[in-house]
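seq/struct pair 1
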Amino acid sequence: MEKLRVLVNEIAYARDQTKLSTLQRSLTPVLSFASSLYRVALSFRHCLYHFALLRKHRLPVPVISVGNLTWGGNGKTPMVEFIARWLSDSGISPLILTRGYAGGDEARMLERHLFGTRTKIGVGANRAAIAACCFEIYGYIDPRSSTCDHKLCLDNNVESHLNSGKIGAVILDDGMQHWSLQRDLEIVMVNGLMLWGNRQLLPLGPLREPLTALRRADAAVIHHADLVSEQNLKDIEFMMREVKESLPIFYTRMTPSHFFEVANINSKLTLEALCDAIILCVSAIGSANAFVNAMEKIGASYVDRLDFSDHHVFQATDVEMIRKRLGELEDKFGSQPVIVITEKDYDRDSEILKHLHPFKVLALCSVLQVLSHRGCTEKGYRKLLEELLRVKLAGPN
């Protein structure tokens, strides 16, 4: 199954379809047919919601959706964390609704990062039901009510009742295609490194929806913008503004901060700890190139990599494959290499990674940074989010 996923991913992002292998070319007609069925199902589902044959739930608090148009590596989860911190620092208790896909690695990472903040996290496929359960447990504050004077309370000097822990906003993780919940703000994350591949719908291509879905977006964020050339950034902006001319566009990157040992999560190592080291990057994330690039920049002597598909759960056979590569590196360089994984990989299954002893396994911790680029800044991004929410909440319900 893992090999099939790799083959399909290569088809979706191949720049030159003529260079596909014989096996991949034989798969293409099947994937094309499946993609056509997906398009029909997508259109039918959209019609059901458009004509109110399927119900859209309106939650009693503002809903901020963070989503994307493609699979994996778009920075959704770091952006969800960024917005949760912004709301929490502003005196509002946010509720993050996440599906908990593939064992809930993202939810566990969010819980660890946001521990000690006002944030609550609800995990489950039926997000309306999960939200209702959380509202019953924690209560909620409706900023549309008279107590908030029909404005979103986003000031640090908010009234004491806003500090009570009652939920004041919902952040919908991976929410762009979750049409059963109405949202007040739609943020679309775009992977600047991989973009939209062959621009085909799943499974032939990486698109969950056609690019015309960008018209629903209130703001777009180009992730990994630091690894993209200025010309490519301009091209991406041009493509998006062809769909929606007025779309505000911002830029983000993942900034490495430190490592911790898989065997001891409370440990903290500086990035310089791996200077001149032999590193094997092992990851099952949507954008492994950005992760490997970060490791190459810290001054390692040599960086090798083993990539698995997004959300892949490591098995005993994978551990043996990793051990084999480690042995090859040790023989080649005469010193013991260090395995580096991402936090998502750690949270998916930390125990199996401990089976790589005596090799040291470190997890890289990174934070989302909004880049100052072409007049766009973090302060400007926060201000835009606040203004957009105020406008939405001031309008008719």
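seq/struct pair 2
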Amino acid sequence: MKVAKSIQKPGQTKEQTKLVAQGIEKGIAEYKKQQKAKARDRDKQRKQELKAKAAAAADTVVDEPSSKANNALLPWLLLGLSWSGFAGYYFLA
């Protein structure tokens, strides 16, 4: 009502001022609805991005055990090569 009275024109009736105040209130309510909808959309987008990052992180975690299995094979491979090298040196020398 304060805003409506501040923009009131000379000769404007009280009813007209009330209608202006109602229009302003309706506009403010509409603006708030729009802002809430935008905030919800931003929140949904943020959650989707977080899910995508979590899924990517989960994929990398799943890949790590297979690389660890390869790392566990390496010492045995080196042991076998060293023993075959010792045996070759012993029998050929």
